[in-house]
TrEMBL record, chain A:
Species annotation: Lyophyllum shimeji
Name this polypeptide is given: Cytoplasmic tRNA 2-thiolation protein 1
Functional pathway: tRNA modification; 5-methoxycarbonylmethyl-2-thiouridine-tRNA biosynthesis
InterPro entries named among the record's database cross-references: CTU1-like_ATP-bd, CTU1_C, Ncs6/Tuc1/Ctu1, Rossmann-like_a/b/a_fold, TilS/TtcA_N, tRNA_thiolation_TtcA_Ctu1
Residue ranges annotated for the Cytoplasmic tRNA 2-thiolation protein 1 C-terminal domain, each copy included: 283-312
Functional note: Plays a central role in 2-thiolation of mcm(5)S(2)U at tRNA wobble positions of tRNA(Lys), tRNA(Glu) and tRNA(Gln). Directly binds tRNAs and probably acts by catalyzing adenylation of tRNAs, an intermediate required for 2-thiolation. It is unclear whether it acts as a sulfurtransferase that transfers sulfur from thiocarboxylated URM1 onto the uridine of tRNAs at wobble position. Prior mcm(5) tRNA modification by the elongator complex is required for 2-thiolation. May also be involved in protein urmylation.
UniProtKB/TrEMBL annotation, chain B:
Keyword terms, alphabetized: Cytoplasm, Isopeptide bond, tRNA processing, Ubl conjugation pathway
Record-linked InterPro entries: Beta-grasp_dom_sf, Mopterin_synth/thiamin_S_b, Urm1
Source species of the chain: Lyophyllum shimeji (Hon-shimeji)
UniProt modified residues of type 1-thioglycine: G105
Protein name: Ubiquitin-related modifier 1
Any one GO cellular component localisation term in the record: cytosol
Cross-link (Glycyl lysine isopeptide (Gly-Lys) (interchain with K-? in acceptor proteins)): G105
Function of the protein: Acts as a sulfur carrier required for 2-thiolation of mcm(5)S(2)U at tRNA wobble positions of cytosolic tRNA(Lys), tRNA(Glu) and tRNA(Gln). Serves as sulfur donor in tRNA 2-thiolation reaction by being thiocarboxylated (-COSH) at its C-terminus by the MOCS3 homolog UBA4. The sulfur is then transferred to tRNA to form 2-thiolation of mcm(5)S(2)U. Prior mcm(5) tRNA modification by the elongator complex is required for 2-thiolation. Also acts as a ubiquitin-like protein (UBL) that is covalently conjugated via an isopeptide bond to lysine residues of target proteins such as AHP1.
Chief subcellular location: cytoplasm
Pfam families given in the database record: Urm1
Post-translational changes noted in the entry: C-terminal thiocarboxylation occurs in 2 steps, it is first acyl-adenylated (-COAMP) via the hesA/moeB/thiF part of UBA4, then thiocarboxylated (-COSH) via the rhodanese domain of UBA4.
GO biological process: protein urmylation; tRNA thio-modification; tRNA wobble uridine modification
Claim: tRNA processing is one of the keywords in the record: yes
Length: 354, 116
């Protein structure tokens, strides 16, 4: 095939076919349209206010590495006036997270952003390695997911930021829409396409890459030669998401717009009022103060199960009942420190650049 | 006549190829199965049959690379180069980047892997 000129500048050689539009464009135009689309997503959704302190949830993987790069670029180019931080959660997975955190530490220097690392060990007294040695490899992703969500909020509160941004991309969101449909999870289906979530008791959280295709994120990282870490978690048997992902990739191969189409379908779902009325109201956990749909939040339930040697307590209703039969939680039970929304000054020292 | 091709694997794919990112391969310039100039499809089959060490199904599916693996021909998206029909030239650089998760076990199909 003869080389084609870029559909945008009509000058340089086209190097990429955009999955969203089918346009064939050159490297420089690709950088420009990719960054501009993220900028448009940010401005149209009014994600930030000048002066906002924003934490980028950074895992060292491709999505969050590209997000950190693009947030820095756009903040400077369009004078958003944001103060940017990197926030990493150390789950305590030897051979995986310790390596990826090295990448985040390099990103800290490359992007000149302050970095805070918060570990499961510090917050919960358990590393994922220790959890897996107790619970095995069946429900370990439940622990990790619940613990990570809280840890990000708690890390953000320590940094005293107004906002957390995460690298979730269009493929991730389309996958989640499919999973929620297949599981019949109406509550999550109703909210999983929201670009920004904020409750009264949580820190604002948003996804600037909501409409960015994974293919373009990977190409951006490749062309820019960004430093990222691409080994999968050694404990990751999240088979359900794996199936949704493989299915979505097959759909994309047949029709690339499928990903954005599924997101639009997800956005168009309206949950009827009488269905909404049956959903549980949010409250705060009586033990740690974190937002919860039960008296005890999921993380406190999981932690109590671990501490009392009954790890299933937080996984199944049966496990919960068994735990209750053993009597109330002992006085000296290890608990998660009380959650407070940020107000005033940061309560922690951030990592210093070596 | 033969072609020297530089091959690079990243995004986790290197784990299937002896945990080595860069490889140099020498393949015939005329595809012995078709007697025509060698195309990228031949290289994919060659890599599958000669360099792939494990988990065949994570690299190929239905005789092409698995959906979710990006292929670059001299830094250009292979979708602009005719994909598997691209006719290889001596010195070409072919990059395979996985965008998929699940190397640790989510999509293993038992019985199809060629090594454990």
């Amino acid at each position: 095939m003869a080389p084609r000129a870029c559909a945008l500048c009509e000058n340089a050689k086209a190097m990429l076919k955009r999955p969203k539009t089918g346009q064939q464009i050159c490297r420089e135009c690709f950088f420009y349209v990719f960054e501009t689309e993220v900028h448009n997503t940010i401005t149209q959704s009014k994600l930030f206010q000048p002066g906002d302190r924003v934490a980028i949830g950074a895992s060292g993987g491709k999505d969050s590495t590209v997000l950190a790069h693009v947030m820095k670029t756009l903040n400077e180019r369009y004078n958003y006036g944001l103060e940017l931080f990197l926030l990493s959660i150390d789950e305590g997975i030897t051979g995986y997270r310790d390596d990826s955190l090295e990448t985040v530490k390099r990103n800290q220097q490359q992007y000149d952003m302050p970095l805070k690392i918060l570990s499961y060990d510090e917050l919960y007294g358990w590393t994922m390695d220790a959890i897996v040695s107790q619970v095995g490899r069946k429900n370990n992703c439940t622990f990790c997911g619940v613990f990570r969500r809280q840890a990000l909020d708690r890390g953000a509160a320590m940094l005293n930021v107004d906002h957390i941004v995460t690298g979730h991309n269009a493929d991730d969101i389309a996958e989640t829409v499919l999973m929620n449909i297949m599981r019949g999870d109406i509550a999550r289906l109703g909210r999983c396409t929201a670009i920004c979530t904020q409750g009264e008791d949580t820190i604002k959280r948003s996804k600037p890459f909501k409409y960015a295709y994974e293919k373009e994120i990977v190409m951006y990282a490749y062309f820019k030669k960004l430093d990222y870490f691409s080994t999968e978690c050694i404990y990751s048997p999240d088979a359900y998401r794996g199936h949704a992902r493989a299915f979505l990739k097959d759909l994309e191969a047949a029709r690339p717009s499928a990903i954005i189409d599924i997101i639009h379908s997800g956005e168009a779902f309206e949950v009827r009022e009488e269905v909404k009325a049956t959903q549980r109201v949010q409250q705060t956990c009586k033990r740690c103060g974190y937002i919860s749909s039960n008296e005890l939040c999921k993380a406190c339930t999981l932690l109590e199960g671990l501490e009392r040697g009954m790890a299933n307590a937080g996984i199944s209703d049966r496990g919960r009942k068994q735990l209750e039969l053993q009597g109330p939680a002992p006085e000296n039970l290890r608990t998660i420190p009380l959650f407070k929304l940020p107000s005033g000054n940061p309560t922690v020292a951030i990592e210093t650049t070596p | 006549m033969s072609l020297d091709i530089k091959v690079e694997f990243s995004g986790g794919l290197e784990l299937l190829f002896s945990n080595q990112r860069q490889h140099s391969v020498t393949i015939p310039s005329i595809d012995p199965t078709t007697s025509e100039p060698t195309r990228l499809q031949y290289l994919i089959n060659y890599l599958r049959d000669n360099l792939l060490k494990e988990r065949l199904e994570l690299f190929v599916e239905n005789d092409t690379v698995r959906p979710g693996i990006l292929v670059l021909v001299n830094d250009t998206d292979w979708e602009l180069e005719g994909e598997g029909d691209y006719v290889l030239k001596d010195g070409d650089e072919i990059v395979f980047i996985s965008t998929l998760h699940g190397y640790a076990g989510s999509t293993i199909i038992p019985g199809r892997s060629i090594a454990q």
